[in-house]
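Bug: C-alpha cell stream looks shifted between consecutive jobs. Job 1:
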Amino acid sequence: MTIDLKDIKAKEETLDPLYKRMEADANLLHLADYVLRDLQGNRVSNVINVTLNKPAVFAANVVSALDFTKQQVTVTSDDKKFDGYKVEQFLDAASSTANLRLMLKHQPLLNQFTNAQSCFRGRAVRKILWRLDKANKVITEISNWDAANVSYSEGGDGLEWGCNKTTRSQEEVIAEYDGMTGFDKSKVPEGKELVIRDVWDKEVNKIYVADSLIYKQANPYGFVPIVFSVVPLGWGDMLLDANRVRYEGESIFFMIRHLVPEMNRL
C-alpha cells in the first residue's frame, strides 16, 4: 500500500505537540530573548531584560563531549568461518565516503549531526541509499534528516513509510532533481519558500512540491530505506497517555525546560 499526501498531513498534525516541544527546546539553545511579564502576561515596561546563557553552555558541553568520542563498528557471528572484519571495513568505508559527499555539500558530518539531533530533538533520522554507478562503483548516499521535519508510521516489522519536509526555492528544487527520469520541472511552482516532501514507503518514492507530485519512482529496496532511532529518555513510552507523543524521546533540556525562564526572571 502506498502513502498519499492526505495521510502524511494527518500524521504531521498528530505529531504537532512533539514539533512544538522541539521548537521550544531550539529557542532555549539559541537563547531566544527573555521578556519579563506581569501576572496577566503583559510585558513589563521600564525594565532591563537579561537572557542567561546557561542552556547554550550546557548544550555546548554535552555535544562537545559526544563529538570527542569515536565510532567503533563491531560485527560478530556464531559462524566461526565468517569474517566479520571485512564487513567492518566495508561499513567504515561506507561512512567515510558518505561523509565525503556531505563535506562537498558543506553539510555536517554524520556523527556531528546525529549527536546534535539526539541531544536537542531526542531522536535521529537518516535516509540511506546504496547504489552502483556506471563504472560499477558503490555509491553511499546518507542524508541527515532533521527529526523536527520528519513524519512516519511504524508497522510490525519496522517503518511503513517516512517523510522529510523541508523548504527550498524553485531554483534549488530544479537543480537537485533536474535530469532524473520522470522529473517534470514545469510542474515546480515559482517561489523562494516551497514546501518539499520526500516520501518513501515500501513500494514507491514520491516528491511533493507545494502539494503537487513532481516525481515518482519505484522503491528498488523493498523496504523503507530510513533509519529512525529514539533516545530512551522521557516517560512517553511508559505512561501511555493520550498526549504522550510530546514526552517520547526527550531532549537534554527536559529537566530544566520550565526552569530557565524563572532563572532569567530572577
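Job 2, same session, no restart:
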Amino acid sequence: MDKNRRKIKRNIRGIVFVVLVMMVLIFLRYGWIQLVEGKTMAERVRLQTGEERVLQSPRGAIIDRNGRELAVSSMTQSLFVDPSNVKDADGLAAKLAPLIQVSEEDIKADIRQGGGFVWVKRRLEPEETKAVKQLIKTENYGDCLGFRDEAKRYYPNDALAANVLGFIGTDDKGLDGIEQAYDGLIKGESTESFVMTDGRARPILDSIFSKRRYEGDRCKTVELTLDSTVQFIVEKELDKAMAENGPKAITAIVMNPKTGEVLAMASRPTYNPNRFA
C-alpha cells in the first residue's frame, strides 16, 4: 500500500510539474506575442480583414457676384488595375478597351508595370463607370479591377471668363487663374478610412456601418465680383472685334467706378477650360 501510495504521489507531482511547465510556456508565449510581436500581429490581422480607403471631397465652387456657378466639381470614379491578380491580360484589355476609350496596348502596358495598383483611367464618365462595373460583375474581375473616388472639375459656361478662372491638372491642382491663386483654399480634402472587406476586397456591411463616399461640403466657395451677364456681353464684343479687325490679342476690363470692383475681365485669344489641353 505504501509503495502504491508513493507511486501515485510521484505521478501526481509529475503531472503537476508538466502542467506548471506548460502554463509557464503558454504565459511566456502569450507575453512574447503581446509585448514583442503585438504591433506586427495586429497590423497583419488588420490587412487580412480590411483595407484603407481614401474618401475624397470635391473642390470648392467658384461663383459670380450673383451666385451663378462659374466652376463646380462633382464626384466621379477613377479606374485602377491590380496587375498581380490579372490572369489573362489580353482578354481583360480586349473587353475593357472599348468601354473606356483606351487602347488595348495602353491597358496591357499598365498591367505590365506590375505591383498591386496602377491607374487605368482617371475620372470616368458615368456611363463608362456603369459599363465597367457591369463587366466586373459579368467576368468576375473584382479581384483585379477597382474604383476610387475623385473629384472632376466642370466649367458650366465653357470659355466664359476662362482667362480669369484658369484650370486644374489631373491631381486637382490649380494651374492658372483663380484656380491657382486660391488652390490652397478650395482644394478638395482626402480622408483615409479603414473598411472591413471580404476575400474579394468587397466591403462587409459597409452600406450600414460606414460611409465610403464623401457627403456634405467641407470646401470653401470663392465668390468673385464678376457679373456673368456683363462678362458675356464683353466677350461677345471682343469676338466681334477679333472678327472685324483681326488683332493678335485684345483685353477688356469693366469696373464699377464707385467701388473699383471688376465686373468683367476678358482676353482674346481664349480657350475652353473643360478641354484646356
